[in-house]
Amino acid sequence: MIQTLAVIVIVALAGAWLIRGWVRKARSKTACGCDHCPVAKKPGV
Amino acid sequence: MSDLRTIALAGNPNCGKTTLFNALTGLRQRVANYPGITVEKKVGQIRLGDGSPAEVIDLPGTYSLVPTSPDEQVAAEVLFGQRADTKRPDAVVAVIDASTLARGLFLVSQLLELDRPLVVALTMSDIAARRGIVVDDRALEAALGVPVIPVVGHKGVGVAALRSAVDRALEGNSGSTGAGVPKALAKAIAASSTSTDPLLSEIGGRYAWIDALMAASVRSGTKSHLTERVDGFLLHRVFGLGFFALIMGSLFITLFTLAAPLMDACSSGVAALGHWLTASMADGDLKSLINDGIFAGVGGVVVFIPQIALLFLFLSLLEDSGYLARAAVLMDRLLCKVGLHGKSFIPLLSAFACAIPGIMATRTIDSRRERLITILVAPFLSCSARLPVYALLIAAFFHHLPGWQQGLIMLALYLLGIFAAFAVAWLATKIRGRVASTPFILELPSYKLPQPRQVALQVWQNASAFLTKAGTTIFALSIVIWAITTYPKPSAERITADTSTFTAHWQAPADTPADKLAEVRQDALDKALAGKALETSIAGHLGHFIEPAIAPLGFDWKMGIGLVGAFAAREVFVSTLGIVYAVGDPGDATDGLQAEMLADRKPDGSPVWTTAVATSMLVWFVLAMQCISTTAVVRRETGGWTWPLLQLGGMNVLAWIACLITYRILA
What we know:
Largest sheet of chain B: 7 strands, mixed
CATH architecture of the domain at 5-219 in chain B: 3-Layer(aba) Sandwich
Structural class of chain B: alpha/beta
Number of strands of chain A: 0
Order of helices and strands of chain A: H
Helix content of chain A: 55-70%
Radius of gyration of chain B: 30 Å
CATH superfamily of the domain at 5-219 in chain B: P-loop containing nucleotide triphosphate hydrolases
Number of helices of chain A: 1
Strand order of the largest sheet of chain B: 2-3-4-1-5-6-8
Radius of gyration of chain A: 16 Å
Oligomer: heterodimer
Low-confidence stretches of chain B: 33-38, 175-179
Mean pLDDT of chain A: 69
Helix content of chain B: 55-70%
């Protein structure tokens, strides 16, 4: 029972962390989508 | 913006500026980009004589303060205090290469006019001496009116003296403020201002002053120029290319031969750690998550660290020795033939590490069309995320070949990617027509012995980036993939039905001893039930759903699960297979993923993985576009969805056709 609960929590946390990362990347104003590099989005080639 | 006092390092490209920056700051540095552009901003900290910290900025290499490229623009803007994101430097260190002194002095002649304390750091004196050039730094100092400090950055020679000179310059008691523009320089510029073009006449005046300065402070001998003689061979259109192929061939052979024992050690270490951690745990889902999810997934990727580190070790050795710049010149001829530009070389070279920085580096290409073609073909080049997949499949299915031949297979995969990139670029040029190309100009640095410190830094940066990815994204993905390969579990009725089917059809192998029969039967039953459980999981259904599309290429549903996982990141293919085989096999899986794959059988008893399947899979990984992050970056860089979708569709269709042909021929 404890093992099952622990697994549910771990999987939920991992899933939430991944989704949060993807959302942040999609909303990011930087071209590479990372959090630390201040490369601004540049429209068009 | 920082309130610390700021010291800028300015100099020509390849003058030893970054080596000096590393010597001054050590590991107290951070690398980012100037906002709005992909010009790298390197900032570090040093302690001044009074113990207070100061910031050191390693400016992009520049030949003058009249910029002709984005890099030079940034350097000039920082020095003039025109960038909102960077404080104007309190002092400037002009880094000049003693072996190309005139070019460096041209920049110094402009830096002297800035209203900033200036110190000149004279680098590469050893290389200049080998060329018979001896610079009298005292005479130069007297003529310039600012301190001139000879330094050897990688050995730390002169670094302390440079720090003291900067200290004195900041205190304002070295007489090194820019107010002291040498009279001779002002006179030379004034004397030449007769031409109709003021810029040209100013350049003429500066060079007249430099000529006089060099005559007074430089002694040139008649020693032969080793660099020029070596370049005669290495840049030769036949021998040069042959040598390039030889270097690359040796690189991959060494990579494979050297990495194998290190990878085996890593693999054993990871497996032992997993078992040690879960030894005292009761059987259950948590234990399975740790062993079959985290350790099979993350561990499966982490074991490739030695190969990643060795690849970057070799690349940084080539770069530091000065050879990579020659390779760019060699490649320019080839790139021009397929419609690319010499400036495409650096983005394409970066794409061997990761397509994303490669695509972002295309911003230095002036022509819109050449830039677009470079963006479209960059993902064909084998990034470091493909390396674990290549290494796994080559080691598993070509293990009967000697190490050097396995290395050549790896080289062939890299060459296939290069060939595909060039072929697509050539085709795109044929379809869209060629544009008049701007000439490719590149400073060829002198040959020098690679510096262990620089090389180690570069290897560490790349290996730690890979480890960070394994510890974050791949770790989380492994947990999620374990969950979708484990749940939903089959019902009790289903297990009973599967057990009955197994009992009805199972036959003991002929050579099984009578006392081992029950044990062998139980093992076979456990394996069969685990396989059935995997089929009923979400991942199993997903694998079966895409199986019709990939079956013609020789791939089964388990590989399909791996391919879906690879869209998050290519190396996740390895971790997904690790989890699929660990979950699908209730044993300890101590033999590793390769053995599990080799032992996997179809219902008719024939092997699932054959050499034909593995080769087809390798071709898929070379040619297919699977990286979602790259697609997102291409969308941003091209300003719409047309090009990224065309790239995604085009590369995957090409990969599918190539795999089909490969599989049909080999099977």
